[in-house]
Hints:
Blueprint: H1 11-20, H2 27-38, E1 43-46, H3 53-64, E2 74-77, H4 81-94, E3 103-106, H5 112-120, E4 125-128, H6 130-138, E5 149-152, H7 155-160, H8 164-172, E6 179-184, H9 189-198, E7 203-206, E8 217-223, H10 229-238, E9 245-248, H11 252-264, E10 269-272, H12 278-289, E11 295-298, H13 300-303, E12 313-316, H14 325-330, E13 340-346, H15 351-361, E14 366-367, H16 373-390, H17 401-407, H18 413-434, H19 436-448, E15 457-462, H20 472-483, E16 491-495, E17 500-505, H21 509-516, E18 520-521, E19 524-525, E20 528-530, H22 544-549, H23 554-563, H24 566-586, H25 612-615
Parallel strand pairs: 1-6, 1-7, 2-4, 2-5, 3-4, 5-6, 8-13, 8-14, 9-11, 9-12, 10-11, 12-13
Antiparallel strand pairs: 15-17, 15-20, 16-17, 18-19
Helix pairs in contact: 2-3, 3-4, 6-8, 16-18, 16-23
Bound molecules: adenosine monophosphate.
Amino acid sequence: MNNFEQLGLNESLLSAIKDMGFENPSEIQQKAIPLLLEKDTDIVALAQTGTGKTAAFGFPLIQKIDVSNKNTQGLILSPTRELCLQIANEIKQYSKYVKGLHSVAVYGGASITEQAKDVKRGAQIIVATPGRMQDMINRGMVNIKNIQYCILDEADEMLNMGFYEDITSILADTPKEKSTWLFSATMPQEVARIAREFMKTPEEITVGHKNQGNTNVSHEFYLVSARDRYPALKRLADANPDIFSVVFCRTKRDTQSIAEKLIEDGYNAAALHGDLSQAQRDAVMKSFRGKQIQMLVATDVAARGIDVDDITHVVNYQLPDEIETYTHRSGRTGRAGKSGTSMVIVTKSELRKIQQIERIIKTKFEEKPVPSGIEICEIQLFHLANKIKEVEVNTEIETYLPAISELLQDFDKEEIIKKVVSVEFNRFLEYYQKSSNSLQSVSQGRNNSKEVPTDGAVRFFVNLGAKDDLDWMTLKDFLRDTLELGRDDLFKVDVKDGFSFFNTEAEHAEKVMETLNGLEYKGRRVNVEISNNDGGRNGGRRDHNNRGRSGGGFRGGERRSEGGFRGGERRSSNRSSEGRSDRRSSEGRGERRSSEGRSDRRSSERAPRNERGSRRSGDGDSSRRTRRD
Ligand code: AMP
C-alpha cells in the first residue's frame, strides 16, 4: 500500500492532500490511517516529530467526524502553544473541502473568553494545551463529556513538562467508551502508566525502534576543553555557512548569554527561554521560521514543540541532564524525510554520556575534530565561489557596468577573480589568524583525535609571516632551531604577509604541533595547523580540486544535492529579509537588537567580527554590499 487512495481516505481529504502536494503516505500514515479508519480502537503510536504523525491522526479524525453534529467530538492535546497552533493549522488545511467542519485552537496566553466563544459556535475538533483545557473545563466553558476521540500528541513531552495531573484530570472528564490515540516519540514509565490507566488494549504502532532517534539524523561529537565550548560553537557555525539550527543549552542563563555572545560576534542568533514574554517568544519564532535567525539558542523546555522543517543542525552546546531529552533535541532536525545533523560539544568528563546516548538511540556517534581556521577559510571561500557561480544576475546591474568595467579595467580576469573572492576570504583569514589563542586550544582537542598524518610530507600553516619580520630563511632558521631539526627536514617554506606554510616529513608532525603551538614569538602566541594545501608536493591530505568538482564544492553544494530544498527556499526568504535590513542600514540605524536578544545584523557582517566599520563602504550605503547568504 503506497498511496493515499488505497488507505481508504475520502474524496475531500484526497483533494486537500493533492493541494498540499503530499505524494505518498509516510510510514506512520501507512500504518495508522487504515487501522484508525477501519475500527474504533485505542492506539499507542511511537513516532518522532517530523514523521507525518499529525496527518496520521488528523486524516482519520476528520473523516470520522459527523459534521451534521455541532458538538465537540474530537480533542487533541499537545504540549505547547506553538505545536497546538501548528496542529490546528494543519487540521484546517486537511479539512478545507469538508463542509461544516470547525476546529478551534485553545492555548494559554490568548483570550480565554474568545476561545470559549469559538468553541460554543460549534467546534467538532478542539486542539488544546493541557493547562488551558483544564482551565476551560473548570470554568464550564467546554463540554468534552461526549467526545469520541481523544488524541494525546507528544505524550512524553506533555508529561516531561509536568502535565500529568492536567492530562489525567481531562481524561477523567471524557467518556470511557471513546477512542484514545496516543502519540509519543519515546516510551518512558509515565507514558506507559497513562496507557495502562486510560486505554483499552491499545494497538501498538512503531516507526523505527522504540526510543530510537530519527534515522535521517547523523550524530557527531566534538571533544573540547570546557573553556573552548564557545569557540568550538562558532567554528561549527562558520564551517556550515548555510546552518539553520537550534543550539541547546542547559539553563536559561546560559541560553541568554550564548545568544548574546553570538549576536555580539555578528551571527544571526536569538535566545528562546522561559523568561521571555509570550510576545517576545512569538517574535523570535516568527523570525526563526522566516529564517532571519540562523541560530536559535534555546532551553529544552522552550524548544518543545518547535516544529520547523528544514532545520539543518541541532547543536548540543551542553548535553541535557536527562539523557532521554537528547532524542527530543535531535528530533528537531531530519524532519519530513530530510536529513539533518545533531552535533554535541563535549568535554572529556562527559564522554560517558555519549555512550549512554548511543545505547538509547541505538546509533553510533561519529567523533569529529573541530574544524581548523584554515579549513573554515577554505569552506567559506568555496561557498562564496559557489554562490558567485549560481547567483542570478539582475538586469538592473547593466546601468552600472560601464563605470565598474572602467574602474576595473587594469585587471585581467584572474586578478578580478582573486579580488572578488578575497573580499570574503580575507575576513575569515584575518579573523582566524587573530584568534590564535582559541585556535590553539581547540585544535589541541582535534590533534588528540588522530589527525596527524603518519606518512608522506605534511604541510603546516603557521600564523607568523612577513608582518613578524620573517622571510623564508629566518622562518626556516627559527623552526629548525626550535624543533631541533636538520636543515633538510624543513622544506617548501612559503612566507606570506600574516602567515606562512612549511613542510616536514610526517614523522616530525607531532613534534611540530606540540612544540610550536602555544609558543610565544615576539610577544605573539604561535599557532600551527596542518594545512590542506599540499604546497606543490603530495603532503596535504585533501584535494581542493576534487571538492570543487564534486557538485559545486563544499557544504553548500553537498546539501543542495542531498535534499535540494535549502538553496532556493533560504535564498528567497533571506532575500526578503535582506531587503528589510538594507533599508534599516541605509537609514543609518544599522544593527538593531530587539528586547528578545535577536540581532538584525546582516550575516555579511558576521565573521570579520569587530570589523563592521571597515566594511562600511565610503559612500555609507551598506545596501550595496554582498550578503553572505
Ligand atoms: P508532522 O510529523 O506531522 O509534524 O509532519 C512534519 C511535516 O511533514 C509537516 O510539514 C507536514 O506537512 C509534512 N508531511 C506530512 N505528511 C507528509 C507526506 N505524506 N508527504 C510529504 N510531507 C508530509
